[in-house]
Structures are given as C-alpha cells and as structure tokens.
Amino acid sequence: MRLSPPFQWRLLVVVVMALTVRMVNGGEYFKAYNVSYDHRALKIDGQRRILISAGIHYPRATPQMWPHLIAKSKEGGADVIQTYVFWSGHEPARGQYNFEGRYDLVKFVQLVGASGLYLHLRIGPYVCAEWNFGGFPVWLRDIPGIVFRTDNEPFKAEMRRFVKKIVDVMREASLFSWQGGPIIMLQIENEYGDVESSYGQKGKDYVKWAAKMAVGLEAGVPWVMCKQTDAPEYIIDACNGYYCDGFKPNSNNKPVLWTENWDGWYTTWGGRLPHRPVEDLAFAVARFYQRGGSFQNYYMFFGGTNFGRTSGGPNYVTSYDYDAPIDEYGLISQPKWGHLKDLHAAIKLCEPALVAAESAQYIKLGSMQEAHVYRNNGSICSAFLANIDEHKASTVQFHGQSYTLPPWSVSILPDCINTIFNTAKVGAQTSIKGVDIKAMASAKSATNELYMIQKEKPLVSESWMTLKEPIGVWGADNFTVQGILEHLNVTKDRSDYLWYITRVYVSEGDIAYWKENVVSPTLTIDSMRDIVRIFINGQLIGSSKGDWVKVVQQVHFKQGYNDLMLLSQTVGLQNYGAFIEKDGAGFKGQITLTGFKNGDVNLTHSPWTYQVGLKGEFLKLYATDDNGSSGWTNLAKDEVPSIFSWYKTYFDSPFGKDPVILDMSSMGKGQAWVNGHHIGRYWTLVAPKNGCQETCDYRGSYNSDKCTTNCGKPTQTWYHVPRSWLQPSDNLLVLFEETGGDPFEISVKTVSVGTVCGHMSEDSYPPVHMWSSSYINGRLPASQMKPVMELQCEDGFTIASIEFASYGTPQGSCQAFSTGNCHAPTSSSILSKACKGRNSCNVEVSNSIFGDPCPRTVKTLAVKARCEPSSASTLWYTGLSEV
After folding, report:
1. How many CB atoms lie within 10 A of CB 853?
2. I need a labelling partner for 51 at 20 to 30 A (CA). Which of 232, 485, 618, 836 fits?
3. What CA–CA distance (Å, rounded) separates 538 from 582?
4. DSSP category for residue 294
5. How many CA atoms, within 13 angstroms, populate the side-chain half-sphere of residue 748?
6. Helix or strand holding residue 124 (H, E)
C-alpha cells in the first residue's frame, strides 16, 4: 500500500498512541490492532483477511433487538457489521445532538465489538438508503447559499462539522481498531459518482476536498468511497451493485471491495414485492471472491423498519425488509440465511489460499466455464469452478477429475479436489410467510413454514374512541400571504401535512352560465407531489398522487364565497439524485380555475392561508399522558369508515417473546402510534394485478422486476411493533386515518416458525461445517462424507412431532408430502427418536440409517416436523391457534 506522506505520519501517530488493551462492557478485553491494506486485501495486524460483512442499520431496529441481530449475523458467517450514520437522526436541530435510543451509535458499535466482529462505519453523511432526504436534516437546506454535495462553502462547513463530530465521538469511546475497538474502516460520501457530472468541475473539486477532509480527521483507519472512479490514491474506491465480480479499483495498490451487494430491493407503496433468489445471490458472491474480491457486504443482511417518518422516497413503504437473510422482525429468512451460511463457511476454508496468492491462476474449462485457482508456495490450494451459462449444465475436467456444474453456478473446492458447495444446490431451510407459496413449493431444499400465531380473538379491541380532525385552519399559528409557497419551506418537514386555503367568489351569472351551457369549473394544478386532497367548503371532492404530476379536478361551487382548501402531503422526501435540496414538495407552476363566464381565474397569486400539520399532531393525541380532555367520544361500528378521523384504543400484549405485528388491512391511509412510539405510515395501496412470476428462475442476471410477488394485493398490511415498546396490558394504540377504514378489524399477531420441512437426497453435499471440522492443513478427508439433514426450530421452540417422514421416493412439497413407490417404514420412528423434544437435530441421509428400500435408486428423505414453544413457554402457548 502506498500512502501519501501526511497520511503515513498521521497513521504513525495514532498507532503510537494506541493502548495495547482495553476493557469493553465491564469484562471483555480487546487487543489494539492496526488496519492497512495492499492490492489484495485489507490487512488486520499485518495479516490479509477475506472478509464477509452484514449490513445492519441501527435506527431500523430497537436497541433491545441489536444483540440478537448481531449474534445471528455472526452465526451466519459474518466477520463485519456495516452501517450508515444517519445525520438527520443524530442532529435533528442544528447543534442539538441525539445519541439516545435507536440512535445510540456508541452502544451499537460497542455491542458489535463485544461480539468479536469488526465494524465498517459509513459516515457519508449523505447515505441515500431510502431514508428521508437521503439522511440529511431538513434544516440544512435553509442555510443561506447552500448547495448540497458540491464545492460549496456553506455545505462543506456543515459536512465537515458533522463528520468530525462522529469521528470524535467514536474516538472518545475508544472504538477505533488502534484503540482496541471494532471499527476497521470508514466511508466518506456515498455513490457520488452517479451524480458527479451534474456538478461539473465543482463536483470533481468536491471529491478531492471530501477525501482530504476525511483523512485529515486522523481516524487512523482506511477510508472508502463507493462508486467513485476518481477517488484519490489514498482512498479505496469500492463497488455497489447486484454483481461486482468484474470490478477493478482505480489503482493497482487497492484491494477489491464490494460495499453494497444488493440481496433484495426496496418497495414502494402500490408496488410489487421484489425477491432475489438465493442461488443467484450466492453465485454473485462466489464469483466475486473467485475473481479476486476480498471484502463483500450484504445490503441488507437485516433491513428492519422505517419507524416514524424516516422512510424516504417519495412513496417508500414502512417495511425495509429488503428480502434480507434476517427479516424485518429479526427472524431468520430461509433459505437465504442458511444457504449463505454454508457459502461463507466454504469461503472461509479457502481463505488461507486466497490471502497467500498474489493473484489467481485462470484456467479456461469450456466456452462458458472457467476455473480460478489460488495456491501458496506449499500445499495449500483452493479453486472455484464456474459455469456462467444461463441454461445448460456442463461437465468439465479439472486436475484430472470430472465435475458437473449446474447452469449459472460456482462450485467451491477448498483443497482443489473436493466440491463442498455449489451455489445452485440449496440444502438449507426455507421460510414461507403466507405469500408466494406456489413458487416456494418447487424448491429442492428444507422448508420452514412461517405461521401467524394469534389469539382466538385476534382483534386489537372491540372498544374504540374517535375524534374528528378539523378540515382547514385549526390553530392560531396560521398565516396568510400572497401566492403559493413551497411546501417544505413552510413545514420544515415537521409534519407530512400542509393546508393551502383561499376563497373563491362565484357570481349569480356564473351559476346561470354553468346551468345553461352544462359547464362546470375545473381546477388545474400544473405540478404536484406527493399527494393533494381537494376540499370545497369542507367537503372532500377529489385526490391525486404522483411525483410532480399535473392535477385536473372538476369542482362544484355554490353562489357567493367558497373556501377552496388544498391539503398537500409528503410521503417521504427525495433521497436520491443531484440537487435534492431544490426538489421540494407541494405545488409548482400555476393553479387556475377554468370554465367561468368571464374567463379563467388564476389563483397562483391570490391570498392563501397556510396551516402546518394536523391539530391532533399539535395536541399529541398519540401521547400516553392524554387525560381525556381532547374530546374523544366512543366509536360505534356504524360510524366507520370515516375520513380524517383519529381513533384510539387499548390492547394487551400477546403472550411470549415472538415479534408482534399489527394487521392493518382494514384501514386506508394514515399513521399509527403505540404507547407514543410512531410505528410509521400505513397505506393499503394495491399492487398491479400483473407482472408477478409463478415460478422464479434464478439463472441469469437479476433485476428488481424479476421474481416479484404480491400482485393484486396491498403492498403492505403488517406493521412491526417492537416488543420493547409494549407493556403487558393497556397499550395505547392511536391512528390517524385519512381516507376511511374500519379499526374494529385491526388485529394484533405474533410471528413464529411453526413447521420445519426437509427434503434431501442421498447424493447431496454434506453440510459445509462438517467439512470445516475435518479440514486439516489445507486438505479434506479422502473419503466422501454422507449428507446430513439438519432441522431447526426458532429459539425457544422445540420439535414437538414428526408429521411426515419418508426415505425413498417421496412426492410433493411441505404443504402436501406423500410417500412414493419406494418407502422405508422406519422413517418416522428414526426421525422421532432423533428430533422430538429438541430445538434442532441432524439425521444422516443414507442406507446405513434407514436401510435400502429400493436398490439402484437414488433415495430422498422428506420430513415435516412441528415446532412448538419449549416447556418454559407452554403456558402462554395454550389456546393459541394458527392462521
């Protein structure tokens, strides 16, 4: 690695100052270590490392969830946790910092270190991340003369101040590697190369400034810029995308890093749900390490939830599940988690050879087949065999042996002899979440059915109270000016809602003109985002949604004065692109009325009265200390649905520790709070009826429109309520409903895995961890080990019964297994003995265990097992039912 002289000097200073050991969390010691790099990899304490990183964004979970998420990431094979830093959450008002609760960054980093994992901290401070305003605080746009992300002095001053603040906080908490902490790498800016050309020379100058500024903070660890081909020599440029195996940094002195491997995609209101097949994801990862990569991060390993109004967009949903290996609620998503765990274990077996070799030996095996071989000067040798053909399997010769490679797959040979993993052969468990069952049923793997466990009476409450939200002006802080003001300039994003109110006079002649000519006036708004609701004299007459779309609405006036009220709404601020500080919200252009007897009426420069937000927001109707003085009344079932209404009730927490959700499918659009915590926006906007695939073919390049589900259904109906926000009883649920819905049908449920299914043949690969335990001095055992089916319930659950078991030629899938012509009669008793009463079990898939019910036939073991809460949890489980 070649470093600039200033960086060399600063690195020497911080290393000399480093403590040799320190204590974290009152008892665990960490040795201080240096982090550097060369052309091949990051070097930790001088040793090259092949690193696997799991993306977790701390504000998208609660602090109570963090230890579990970190532990499951580590168990899944991660060496590193990666997170952005969210400026808008840490500095909600200029100079007023927040490092509490979900924004307790120090605690999160300490937990990562205590787990024995490293941390990649992406300070940005622009993060994109489908986060409101790309992570920028909205107050930033009000600084005079500011232009974001360019050579602009006001912006650079604010950016440097915040980045320095984060570096100082981390240093003061002794969280950098040279202090014995977990932070091994930092990031400045984020995907700036996508927008740099929009800023011309000022953009190029800004890149140089940002890099120099970051290094000048003397953090003592390497800095990264992703998607930045002109990153300076002393900054590592990295790749983001679905595939990065062909990426090369802009210098031969830098390692190949993949900072964002998109293992899913985000979701918009009214959109389909995207899924990325694990076979393709594993293929992309294996190809990356095969072709010289050394650090890869899953974006996301845990996606989480956009609580409150943090979701960006516009129009991104509350859930940030991202089809990640750990789902929104913190449950393992199979087969992604399990298949990737096996992949990571296989890659780790190759690490000695990968770090020893300066580069790979490339061998052409066929027209679309190739091998990359890594070896040291001694006996260590590892190989990756790839078939990049999207359609056909291929049998290739390598080192004198034959290997059959499925299409679009990579086989991993840690000893250059034995194949222990192929990306297209999934042997892990699969979770079914009540959607896309048909597509999942064809998977040749174990299957977990994810059930909704709920009370026999799942409704939140049969007793609700209601309060009407005023239409129009409600507070003393309204004001009137000439003309149309930009939405964010007025609200400062304190609320989604802004009222625009003006008065229109209609003469007797206009009334007669409309009747005689059958003409009605039309309201036209040149451009609008995200939502406008149009009221005449307090009555809703129309709505429109879109991203800077034209609005044309027929209106009906009475003779005399009429109040025209426009409710402008944001649904998450723009989080991507150049000049986002200028994007704004609300209305652009002219607002006119046409169809009057004496010509069009231009309302653009008329007097308009403005009212920010909702009265219920101002009164904090969602707060737990409401004394009942706000005017709540009991709600009768014949009063719903009703627009612009507040609802509240109290509910008891579901028993147990499983994740809790609210099923809001009976509602329209609005926002929800539980015990004062803002759950987020809800909206039962329906996805298009077409565009989904019954089956998903993993072969070939992935894009976000491939393998989508949920067509013709609401994009989101389940809303996560973290357990730590609940108390045993009397939990306050408050809703603001805009369009009309039935709160009596809202239900509270918990999520858990109820059934575990396995499907594995006798010629499958053994689990990779079994190879790992036998891997000695770079060699695997000469004899082929037997395949083993592994079944596991969620934590706190045990296998209560074996509902189906057949070794032979079983038919069907987890939903409907049946025995075939060949069946070992001892199958059920063997599985029951091995598995009942245990959280997990292993059963060898071979004739030596089950006997041979049909010689000269490849046998398969199919199992369906029932998971129930362990004995410690049986009290709360009694009386619950599955949906």
Report:
1. 20
2. 232
3. 32
4. -
5. 21
6. strand 118-124
| 215 and 307 belong to one structural domain | yes
Query: Quick one: tokens of 163?
Result: 């980045």
User: Look-up: residue for tokens 């025995």?
Assistant: 819
R_g (Cα) of the chain, nearest Å: 30
DSSP string, 439-503: HHTT-SS-EEEEEEEE-SS-BS-S--EEEEPPSS--STT-EEEESPPPHHHHHTTS-SEEEEEEE
Same domain, 818 and 716: no
Distance CA 735, CA 851 (A): 61
Q: Residue 278 belongs to a domain with what CATH number?
A: 3.20.20.80
pTM score, whole prediction: 0.92
Query: Could you tell me which of 574, 52, 73 has the C-alpha nearest to residue 303?
Result: 73
Asked if residue 287 lies in contact with residue 258, where contact means CB atoms within 8 angstroms, the answer is no
Q: Are residues 145 and 269 in the same domain?
A: yes
Last residue of a domain, one of 327, 347, 382: 327
What is the domain-level CATH number for residue 494? 2.60.120.260
Is the distance from CB of 798 to CB of 873 less than 8 angstroms?
no
pLDDT the model gives residue 455: 38
- Where a domain ends, among 749, 780, 801? 749
Can the peptide bond before residue 521 be classed as cis, meaning omega within 30 degrees of 0? no
Instruction: Tell me how far CA of residue 221 lies from CA of 184, 427, 451, in angstroms.
Output: 6, 39, 45
As a whole number of angstroms, the distance between CA 733 and CA 749 comes to 14
Give me the residue label for tokens 């009212």: 611
Q: Are 506 and 562 in contact (CB under 8 A)?
A: yes
Q: Write down the pLDDT at residue 769.
A: 79
Asked if residue 391 and residue 252 are part of one domain, the reply reads no
Check whether residue 372 and residue 517 sit in a common domain.
no
Positive/negative CA dihedral, 848, 849, 855, 861: negative
Please give the distance of CA 1 from its chain centroid, rounded to a whole number.
Answer: 34
Whichever domain contains 757, its CATH number is 2.60.120.740
Pairing of strands 257-262, 295-302: parallel
Which residues sit opposite 806 in a β-bridge? 862
Closest CA to 217 of 182, 175, 186: 186
Helix, strand, or coil here: 109? helix
pLDDT at 434: 32
Numbers of helices and strands, H then E, in the chain:
16, 46
Contacts 24+ apart (CB under 8 A), 472-477: 472/499, 472/501, 472/535, 472/538, 472/563, 472/565, 472/611, 473/499, 473/501, 473/609, 473/611, 474/611, 474/614, 474/615, 474/618, 475/611, 475/615, 475/618, 477/611, 477/612
Tell me: do 54 and 132 sit in the same domain.
yes
What pLDDT was estimated at residue 102?
98
Whether residues 350 and 401 fall in one domain: yes
Could you tell me if residue 597 is inside a domain? Answer: yes
Q: Is residue 698 part of a domain?
A: no
Q: What is the pLDDT of residue 15?
A: 39
Question: Annotated active-site positions, please?
Answer: 191, 260
Could you give the number of structural domains in the chain?
Answer: 5
**pLDDT value at residue 786:** 84
N- to C-terminal Cα distance for the chain?
58
Question: For the chain, which ranges sit under pLDDT 70?
Answer: 1-30, 429-458, 518, 626-629, 773-784, 871-883
Query: Domain of 367: which CATH number?
Result: 2.60.40
- In this prediction, residue 715 carries a pLDDT of 98
Distance, C-alpha 239 to centroid of its chain = 19
So what's the pLDDT on residue 444?
32
**Model confidence over 195-239: pLDDT tens digits?**
999 999 999 999 999 999 999 999 999 999 999 999 999 999 999
Task: Report the amino acid identity of residue 182.
Answer: P
Q: Are residues 576 and 628 in the same domain?
A: no
Tokens 């147990």 belong to residue? 656
Where in the sequence is the domain holding 380, given as residue range(s)?
334-425
